[in-house]
Amino acid sequence: MSPPAPATASSPAPGATIRPEEAAHFGRLAEDWWNPKGSSAMLHKLNPVRLGFVRAAIDAHWLGDSRGLRPLTGKRALDVGCGAGLLAEPLARLGAETTGVDAAAENVAAARAHAEAAGLAISYHAGDIATLELGRFDLVTAMEVIEHVADKQAFVNALAHRLGPGGLMVLSTPNRTLAARLLLIEAAERLGRIPRGTHHWDDFITPDDLRDLLGAAGLTMGEPRGIAWSPLQGLHLSDDLSLNYIVTATATL
Q1: Residue 102 annotated as lining a ligand binding site
Q2: What residues does S-adenosyl-L-methionine bind to (predicted)?
C-alpha cells in the first residue's frame, strides 16, 4: 500500500476526507451534470455499467428476484460523492429510502432540484461523510470518489461506520496503472472527454491497496470486476482491471 502524501500548509486536517480544491472543481460542473453531452458525458456512459453491477450485487447479497423492479424496498441506501444524483436517483427508483452526500454544495443543490422535478424523495446533504451523522444504511455506494479524498483510510472508515449489520457496500475507482494514466488523463482529459484536472494519477488505488484499506476498516472485499473500454462495446464490465474496477465489500465475519 502506498504511503500517505506528506502534509502541506494547505492540506486538510488529519481524518478529514474532503479536499477543498476537489470540491470546488466538481462544484463548477454542477449546472452541467445532467447534460449527457456536457462535461459529465463520461459519467452518463459509465453509469449504466455501474448500475448493472450494483443490481447484480443487490440480488446476490439479498437473494432477490432479478426480475423484480424494486429490490431495495424497505432498505436504506447511501450514495457518497453523489454529485447531482446520477446514481442516487436509480437507487430510489429501485425502492430504497435514499440519501446522497457530496462535498460540493453546488452539486447538492442541483441534485435536490433534479430529484424534485422527477418526483423523487431523496435526502441530500453537503459535507464530509466523516462528520455527518446520518445513521446506518443497508447499502452504501461510493463511485469514483476515493481517488479524490484527502485521507483514504479515514474515508473508508467513515463508509464502514455507515454500513448497517448485514449491509452491502459497492465502490468503483480507477486503477493505478499505466493504462489508466494514458487513457484517463493523457487522452481523455487532453481531448476534452473529461474536464481537465479531474484526475491525479498518484491518487489512483490498486485493488490490493483498496483491499488493505477495507480490511483495516473491518470489511472484506469481493472479487473486483473491471470496467473496460473498447471501440465496439464502449464501457463494459470485464475481467480486465487495468483501467477501472468496481467491487463489493461486506463486514468481516
Answers
A1: yes
A2: 50, 81, 102, 143
User: Is 50 one of the annotated binding-site residues?
Assistant: yes
| pTM (predicted TM-score) | 0.88
Task: Say what the pLDDT of residue 3 is.
Answer: 38
Q: CA–CA separation, 84 vs 67, rounded Å?
A: 28
In a domain, 219, yes or no: yes
Total domains, the chain = 1
42 among annotated binding-site residues: no
Task: Using the structure block, give the residue that is written with the C-alpha cell 460542473.
Answer: 29
> Would 108 be classed as within a structural domain?
yes
CA distance 63 to 209: 29
Give me 27's grid cell. 462544484
CA-to-CA distance for 125 and 132, rounded, in angstroms? 9
> Is 196 known as a binding-site position?
no
